[in-house]
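Worked example 2:
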Amino acid sequence: MKKPILITGMERSGISLISEVVQICGALKGTPNEIRDLLVKPFLRGIKADPNGQSPLPDIEMCKKLADSLKDKWRQRVEDIFSMNGLLNLENNCWFYADPKSVLIWPIWVRAFPEARWIIVRRKDNDIIRSCLKTGYMSAYDDAKGWWGWLETYKRRFSELTENKELSVWQIWPQRMIQGRLAEVKAMIHFLGLEWKEKEMDNFITPILWKEGIFETIVEDSNERSKICQSGQAKGK
């Protein structure tokens, strides 16, 4: 079995978008709701943290203390869930689990799956804050000040992962892909040992680029350049 992939980041950062890319390029998604509902959320409640990962956030030192005693049961429970869906019996399979809360309890995941490759999905801080304030289920705080404290905790957890030299960690900024710059996301796919599916990715990304107005801008720029060239040619006659 290939190394599993753990995708994490803050809420409102584009985790779902990156998960779609990873799935298109060959990784198996499984049933993440079962892992969240049967494993992650009960654990968070047990340590008096918010099961939705908003407030209060889990005590990272407590997670470190519990990691060794929980690692075998945690791994077995995750693999059991994937096995029940027939995903661990496939040849050369590679499963992934995407959840913002994974980074909040990263010592548990690291001890249970030391071989895993991590993807941290990033977005500009101000964009995250604005999105949280506009999103109904992000209900822990009603002003930017509260969300800034939440954001800073997540960023500390990101740093703890990226500074751990024993881990394979990649940070990705989906906004660059949305802007039509695909080099970074292609590099991420190669880092994961997956295959970039050119046709499938074109079909997935093209509607996003149209929605964001990227293609309209390209077409307008192309038409404008064409008009300039035609004007120049006319003057030269």
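The beta strands are 5-9, 96-98, 117-121, 168-172. The longest helix spans residues 60-84.
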